Design the sequence.
């Protein structure tokens, strides 16, 4: 995994994260669940979105894909 | 991964239900969970007029959408908290939602109506921002629900919210809080009925509902909630949930079904001590309620106003002019 360069995803999977907002590139193909494990993210706390559509944990991400990992934990209670 | 209902491609896996769903059946699942919560805890009756407290976030907009689909007559209530760009953005998400559906939206702006905003109130009163915010919201929800003749106020508290609060109350054995931690609080003595129809849905599920339903919501967190202890509780519970799916629901729903009644006698004692605020008339344990004290310390005199906007026909009328000073 590496920080995304200024020219974009460089043919690999571009991963957009929030809090703080940042981008990473990873080698594809890989499953969503594998990506979350590598990033040490709890699947209960995030959703993964590719091209404005939710994707499940067994979805394969390929080079050229852009995915958003969206946190779902809110602070108000 | 295939949808449990139609065997089509799934977009989400829900380990606690040992199920995966496509978008269409995720929506059906979420609506059914809300219907079951309302029925089990006797929150609402068919066709009730419900005031839905909306913030622009995933939970409250999902709630508004689901209650509409379940046939309730809803009005949204948005409170402008004055938290800079965050509040301006959140208001736009709510207005967009209402405009798309022709839904009725009531807006109350803290600064113009009460003369303070949340950052200023926190600074002047030494309360935490979340405390000043919660107190302000609860008071305004109650007042507007009663003024509008609504059967109940519905808030977007979800299973994660309620499990985190329960976790915190158990950590410190806050018996009086435990006694009151119900998903429905009946109307009484100047307070409207309050319901939490999302208590069977996690926030991952409400967020997913919004995404597959095309509901744009504010993803950014409130900048003033940093360090909120409930976020830490949620993370701890999610760690347990990851290895033992269903734990959060068991923790909260089993408390409701088997334990909360044992704490209720303490709650009854607290309720008997309530009297009437001499300033605004709301139920209060002291002569002046906490909201009026907050307003007095944090606020400045303002011209009072409240706007009720019928978005569908772009009409804006001023309806509320309650004097509280």
Sequence:
């Amino acid at each position: 995994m590496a920080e995304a360069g200024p020219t974009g995803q460089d043919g690999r999977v571009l991963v957009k994260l929030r809090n703080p907002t940042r981008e990473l590139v990873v080698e594809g193909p890989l499953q969503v669940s594998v990506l979350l494990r590598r990033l040490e993210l709890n699947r209960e706390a995030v959703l993964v979105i590719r091209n404005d559509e939710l994707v499940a944990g067994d979805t394969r991400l390929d080079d050229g894909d852009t995915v958003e990992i969206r946190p779902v934990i809110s602070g108000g209670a | 991964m295939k949808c449990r209902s139609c065997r089509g491609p799934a977009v989400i896996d829900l380990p606690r239900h040992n199920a995966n769903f496509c978008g269409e059946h995720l929506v059906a699942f979420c609506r059914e969970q809300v219907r079951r919560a309302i029925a089990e805890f006797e929150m609402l009756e068919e066709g009730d007029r419900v005031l839905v407290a909306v913030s622009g976030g995933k939970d409250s907009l999902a709630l508004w959408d689901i209650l509409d689909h379940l046939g309730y007559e809803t009005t949204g209530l948005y409170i402008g908290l004055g938290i800079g760009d965050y509040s301006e953005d959140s208001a736009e998400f709510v207005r967009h939602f209402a405009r798309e559906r022709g839904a009725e939206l009531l807006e109350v702006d803290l600064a113009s109506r009460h003369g303070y905003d949340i950052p200023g109130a926190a600074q002047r009163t030494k309360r935490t921002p979340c405390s000043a915010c919660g107190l302000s919201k609860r008071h305004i929800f109650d007042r507007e629900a009663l003024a509008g003749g609504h059967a109940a106020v519905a808030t977007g508290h979800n299973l994660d919210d309620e499990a985190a609060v329960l976790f915190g109350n158990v950590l410190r054995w806050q018996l009086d809080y435990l006694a009151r931690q119900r998903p429905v609080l009946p109307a009484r003595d100047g307070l409207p009925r309050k319901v939490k129809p999302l208590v069977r849905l996690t926030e991952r599920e409400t967020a997913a509902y919004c995404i597959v339903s095309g509901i744009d919501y504010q993803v950014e967190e409130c900048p003033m909630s940093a360090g909120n202890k409930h976020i830490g509780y949620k993370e701890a519970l999610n760690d347990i949930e990851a290895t033992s799916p269903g734990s959060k629901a068991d923790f909260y729903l089993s408390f409701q079904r088997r334990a909360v009644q044992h704490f209720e006698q303490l709650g009854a004692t607290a309720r008997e001590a309530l009297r009437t605020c001499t300033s605004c008339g709301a139920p209060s344990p002291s002569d002046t309620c906490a909201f009026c004290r907050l307003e007095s310390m944090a606020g400045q005199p303002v011209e009072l106003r409240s706007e009720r906007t019928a978005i569908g026909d772009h009409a804006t009328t001023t309806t509320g002019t309650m004097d509280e000073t």
User: Anything to note?
Assistant: The beta strands of chain A are 2-3, 13-17, 22-26, 30-31, 46-50, 53-54, 60-61, 66-71.
